[in-house]
Amino acid sequence: MSKKTSSWRRAGATAVAGLTLLSLVACSGGGSGGDDSGSATEGNLVWWGWTPDKPVADQLIAAFNEEYPDIAVEFVSKPIDNYDSVMGPAITSADGPDIFNVAPGSANGGVETFQAGAIDLAPVVEEALGSDWRDKLSASGVEGLVVDDKVVGLSAGSVYSGSLWINKDMFDTQGLTPPTTLEEWKQVCAAFQAAGQGCFVQGAGQWAFDMDTFEAIMENVEPGAYIEASLGERPYTDPAFVEGMEIWKSLFDDGIMQDGAVGLQQYPDASNAFMSGQYAMVMMGTWYTQYTVRDTMIGAMEAAGVSNPEPFTMIPIQFPDVAGTGETGNMFGDADYGLAISAQSDQQAAAKTFVTWLTTTEAGQQTVANTLNDIPSLLGIQPQWDDIDLVNPEVQLDALKEYTDVAASSTQPRFATVSADLNSAFRDALIGVATGDVTIDDALAGLQSVVDAQ
Asked: What whole-number percentage of the chain has pLDDT above 90?
């Protein structure tokens, strides 16, 4: 999630930026697909995005250059928290990126916000895959990146949440078993804390991850209710959401969430705390699979401040049955990011070559799969596990295979149905309930008022 926040994702750009982009369409004709300026096999491209991590982006570009050595691609990593603010003016300028990330829903890089600055990629993907191209790509990588039949971006792959990751070595040292219920979760955390170690860490100040945890809770309470409410098909004042909010609040009250959780961000704070061995559990999704690879984990541990790091055995587990319903294992996801081509670029032909190679070809999608950062968009592509240097393959391999298979089969969206206003309302509701500044009834009423006004 790469640093997500797939992830991560903040509210959309300002209305002023949106109006600027609408003006761009009128004067540039960018919405029609643009022209094929430049060469399709030579060029110097600049790609902006908040994800993937630069080492992963460099792997993707290196594989691309094996086939297209004369197209140089520079990935410029932009902080997730201010991506929208820097992208707004950049894509109205010829000095901006040739390729830029967009994302489903209203969060950072939202397709609705930035679609006006991108060309329509429908003709591009149809030429690459044929008229039945939608049948060849994951639905989660298509539906959230289309605006009024305009294909704003093509997905390199999707990310899914709804699971936890654990440091199995820490569990083994303490003789503990991963929790499967809310009561077991409390007991595990009490045991770790008694041993002077952290149990579960979350950067609850970064509310996109709070939304992940809350959606996981609601999928356990009643599958589908979370999405129904975001679409206005069920009120947030429904008793199921009262139960979900009570469980969310109990994570803070009963010692599962660490002290000061609301004062931390998921990236870098919670991720670094987990990677440095301070905590045994973290709420992350499929993007975190990349850290099961030895070299990638070592890099993450070094970035977290660990000297001479010794990689640990990290595995995914199901979100515990916190509601006691038996509904477990449900995951939800969207396209991690879509690659959009700027209407202002004078190298659109080369940009189309890179974008289609990465998102529609077997070679490009196999490279994506092998980074373990995203579930590939092109159907039928799986990681080449024999070529991947896991930290502890005897323990990890079967768990990771099952995990990626379950994620790839998921059809539940993550952020795609959440509007900008609802996104902000979730921030106020979840953080407010966690701190006790907002009652559960008021929090849910606030969510419902946003849906009623849409």
From this structure: 81
Instruction: Write down the pLDDT at residue 92.
Output: 84
End-to-end CA distance of the chain: 30
Range 410-437 average pLDDT = 93
Token pair of 191, please? 């045991």
Beta strands in 25-179 (DSSP E): 43-49, 71-77, 99-102, 146-147, 150-151, 154-161, 163-167
Read off the pTM.
Answer: 0.85
Strands 150-151 and 198-201: unpaired
Residue 59, SS3 per DSSP: helix
Segment 227-240 shows an average pLDDT of 97
Nearest to 13 by CA among 147, 103, 122: 103
Predicted confidence (pLDDT) at residue 293 exceeds the cutoff of 70: yes
CB 170 within 8 A of CB 197: yes
The amino acid that residue 352 corresponds to is K
* Average pLDDT over the chain, rounded to an integer: 90
User: Which residues have C-beta within 8 Å of that of residue 422, sequence separation ≥ 6?
Assistant: 106, 230, 447, 450, 451, 454
Dihedrals φ, ψ of 312, to 5°?
-115, 165
128: DSSP letter:
H
Which amino acid, 84? D
Can you say how many angstroms the Cα of residue 402 is from the centroid of all Cα atoms in its chain?
20
Query: Across residues 324-348, what is the average pLDDT?
Result: 95
DSSP conformation class of 72:
E
pLDDT confidence bin for 35, thresholds 50/70/90: low
Residues 6+ apart with CB under 8 A from 175: none
Judging by beta carbons within 10 Å of its beta carbon (0-12, 13-18, 19+), is residue 260 exposed, middle or buried?
A: exposed
Question: Could you tell me the two tokens for 230?
Answer: 């975001």
Residue 420 has pLDDT above 90, yes or no: no
Alpha carbon separation from 334 to 82, 110, 160, 228, 407 (Å, rounded): 21, 12, 7, 16, 11
3-state secondary structure of 225: helix
User: Is the pLDDT reported for residue 19 higher than 50?
Assistant: no
Distance CA 47, CA 135 (A): 28
- How does DSSP assign 2-46, residue by residue? -------------HHHHHHHHHHHHHH-GGGT----S-SS-EEEE
Percent of the chain at pLDDT above 70? 92
Q: Is 386 exposed, middle or buried (0-12, 13-18, 19+ CB in 10 A)?
A: exposed
